[in-house]
Amino acid sequence: MKRENLNYAREISVSVDPGVVYLALTKEIGTWWAPKSDVINKVGDIATFQFPPTFWTMKATQLIPDTLIELECIEAYHIDESIPHSAREEWLGTKLVWNLSTCASGTTIQFVHEGLTPQLVCYDVCEAGWDHFFVRELYAYLVSKIPA
């Protein structure tokens, strides 16, 4: 049973330094998430992430190297055959928040998509998407960075 008021949230840990993770979430985000992506360098940067024709434009609202990345969705155009036209802008105003912390094995990454809650029409497809891209793709990308 889904709890209607809970944001999408997941956590992974990987054996790399927080700096490697921070880089993957800012300048290398197109290698594991949206294939057509702008990089994020500083607070205030505007970046668009595309799965054409779908795209989301985000503004970097908080960046603390090796610790925190927060992006706010300022434009959304989500096309998926499983969701109606009315849900294309559901991400508008939501936030992607990654908190990084050092752990015994390397870095723990806590990810919350604030505003992505089960009452949204796109929730199921977005949950599956984040589970694929955050839990699996980002993890695999970071594991590939572990020194031999």
Q: What structural category characterises the helix and strand content?
A: alpha+beta
| Continuous helix count | 2
CATH homologous superfamily assignment: START domain
| Biggest sheet layout | 7 strands, antiparallel
Low-confidence segments, ≥5 residues, pLDDT <50?
A: none
**What is the CATH C level class, in words?**
Alpha Beta
Q: What's the alpha carbon Rg, rounded to whole Å?
A: 15 Å
CATH third-tier fold name: Alpha-D-Glucose-1,6-Bisphosphate, Chain A, domain 4
Distance between the termini: 42 Å
Strand element count: 7
Spatial strand sequence of the major β-sheet: 1-7-6-5-4-3-2
Return the CATH architecture: 2-Layer Sandwich
Q: What's the number of structural domains?
A: 1
Percent of residues in beta strands?
35-45%
The overall average pLDDT, rounded, is 94
What is the ordering of alpha helices and beta strands? EHEEEEEEH
Q: Tell me the helix content.
A: 10-25%
What would the principal axes of the Cα set say about the shape?
globular
What this model shows, in words?
- Helices cover 20% and strands 36% of the residues.
- It has 148 residues and is an alpha+beta fold.
- It has one domain: Alpha-D-Glucose-1,6-Bisphosphate, Chain A, domain 4 (2-Layer Sandwich).
- It has a 7-stranded antiparallel sheet, covered by helices on one side.
- A hairpin with a 2-residue loop joins strand 6 (95-103) and strand 7 (106-114).
- It starts with 7 loop residues before the first strand and ends in a 5-residue tail after the last helix.
- The model has no long low-confidence stretch (mean pLDDT 94).
